[in-house]
Every structure is written in structure tokens, then in C-alpha cells.
Design goal:
Blueprint: E1 16-23, E2 28-35, H1 36-45, H2 47-56
Antiparallel strand pairs: 1-2
Organism: Brachybacterium conglomeratum
Family: Belongs to the bacterial ribosomal protein bL28 family.
Protein name: Large ribosomal subunit protein bL28
């Protein structure tokens, strides 16, 4: 009565999308690869605050 419990290995990848945002302080649009959760964060905090945090970390936009 034994049956194999081997399953295919499954990956749970984040829902990452490329989105364009207009940043008034830079006067241009920026392209960001963001997850669905990241989009909610941008909606809540605003694109200016998120871009400022990214630049404070020293990452290029």
C-alpha cells in the first residue's frame, strides 16, 4: 500500500513587472522592476519617497 510522495519541485516566483513612473523632482519618467507588493508601497508612500530611498542606498535609477 505504499505510494510514492515524490513531487515536481515548484518555484514560487514573485509577481515582478516593469512599470514606468513620472518623477516630478527629476522631471522625467523612470522605469522600475517592481513586485505587486512594491506597487502597493509606491501607492501608499508616493513615488518621490520611494525614489529618494533608492537613491539614498546608492542605487542608480
Amino acid at each position: 500500500m505504499s505510494h510514492s510522495h515524490r513531487r515536481t519541485s515548484r518555484r514560487f516566483d514573485p509577481n515582478v513587472q516593469t512599470k514606468r513612473f513620472f518623477v516630478p523632482s527629476l522631471g522625467r519618467t523612470v522605469r522600475l522592476r517592481v513586485s505587486a507588493r512594491g506597487l502597493r508601497t509606491i501607492d501608499r508612500r508616493g513615488i518621490e519617497a520611494v525614489v529618494a530611498e533608492i537613491r539614498a542606498r546608492g542605487q542608480k535609477i
